[in-house]
Structures are given as C-alpha cells and as structure tokens.
From TrEMBL:
InterPro entries, per database record: HEPPP_synth_su1
Lineage: Bacteria, Bacillati, Bacillota, Bacilli, Bacillales
Matching Pfam families: HEPPP_synt_1
Name of the protein this chain belongs to: Heptaprenyl diphosphate synthase
Biological processes, Gene Ontology terms: menaquinone biosynthetic process
Amino acid sequence: MNTYRIPEMAKKYTEHDMIQKHTDLPLFPEFRTRLLYAFLNKHSTLAGYSELYTLVTSLVQLGLDTHDMVSVTNDAKEQKSARSRQLKVLAGDYFSSRFYYLLSHSGHIDLIGILSAAICEANRLKMNLYLKMKQLKLTADEYIGQLVEVKTQLFLSFANLLEERFYVVWPEVLRLFTRCEVLLQEIDRSESSQPHQDSWGFWHVLQQATREEKKLLQSEEPDPAKWRPLWLKYKVTPQLHQMLDTCMKELQDKLQSFEPEKLGKELLSIGEPFRRYLSAPRATQEV
C-alpha cells in the first residue's frame, strides 16, 4: 500500500507566497481525503491513480471552501482586508485551475466531467441552503444534514468508479465521517467567544427560543455577544457533544462489521481523532 501523503502534495499549491502573506485558507478536508484515498487504493485498476484522483479532489474542495470564506459584502475599506478578500477569490480559482491542469495533462478527461458535475450539484445545494437560511426556513437537523450533503458531493461522485463491493457502503461511510467532521467543527464554533448565525447553535436556539429571544436573534443588527446567554440556556455545546458521540458510535458499529476487515480497521484509524476527542477529559461544558 502506498503511503498517504496527499496533504504534503497539496502544499505545493496551498503554500504559495502570496496566499500565505495576504490571506488565510480553510482547513484541509483531511477526513474525506483520507477516506477517498483508502477506497481508491483497494481498487484493482484505479489504485495506481489513487494519489492523483485524491489530490485533485482535495484541491477542488479547497477551492470551493476558499470561495465560501469570501465576505458577501465588499464594504471593507481597509487595504489589508480588501487584499485578503481578493486573494481568497484568486486562491479558490487557482486551486480549481490545478484540478483541470493535472487531470488534462495526465489524460483523465472523463474525471474532469464527473467532478465538474459534482461541483455544480454542490453549488446548487449550497444556494438552496443559503436561501433557506435567509428565509429562516431551516431546522437545526436540516442545517446539519444539508451541510453534510454539500461537503460530500465531490467525493460521492466517485461511487460509480469504485469496485462493486464498495458501491453501496461508500456513500454511507462518507456521510457518517463527514457528519462527525461537521459536528466537531460546530462544537468549536459553539465554544467561540462570538456565536455565529451560520451555525447549528443558531438554528437550535431559534427553534427553542421565546418570542423575545427570537427577536434578539433576528434583529437587523445582530449582536452575537448578546447571544451567549442563549447558547448557555439552551445547552448548545453539550447537545453537540451528544450528537457527535451518537454519530461516532454509529460509525464504529458500521466499520467493525466492515468487509473487508482490513479496510474496516484502516477506516477506524482514520476516525481515531473523533474517538480521542470524545474520550479526552474536559471541564463540564456549559455552552
């Protein structure tokens, strides 16, 4: 089996001097990338392309995620902020261009079409999510579910390329891993000093809040600092911990009975950070 080295390979593109100097980037899609690499490496004919396929998919995902970091307004007058915004746009385009370049120069034109269709679907789902958020027509469960769907689209597109024995299990395993990943990120958000409107906590509180509390959340000039007591009241962080624990147990049960057993053990090792996080001692969570 080849050694997994996709993040190191991606650094050739992500550690560009201009990007590092003027802006920040989203987190590398580590769990989904490792999953895709593990499954492709078990393919009788595609194993030789596992690094290429996984690398370009991770770059496309980084491109999409980088564009998501661009603010929807352009009212920042300060030069540094404006430059960071411009670099995010250019960095996202740059990562996407590397995907086209690497696949076209290696002759894998079919995969360009497959991933391009997945990009369109991911953007369609993202726009639907944004519209529901703007209209406040979203539940907390729907928020998590739709976020998982957006984040898995590029990787789901490989289902038809995998060997038949993995065709059914790939989407299920991918979604469970991605749900754990999303929940872990939501926990980090819930523990931040400034609660976010684009978070599970917001939609959870909105569902449970009183009329006056909903007015506070929906004000035209929201003050996230004033939301903190609501995050405490409705136990946002503890509930997210419980959701992550439930998801991780479901994932472990799935992988422990996985065929082939060797791949199941490999996938369990990929999910080890989730298990370690849940088992780590921590102070009693109040938010």
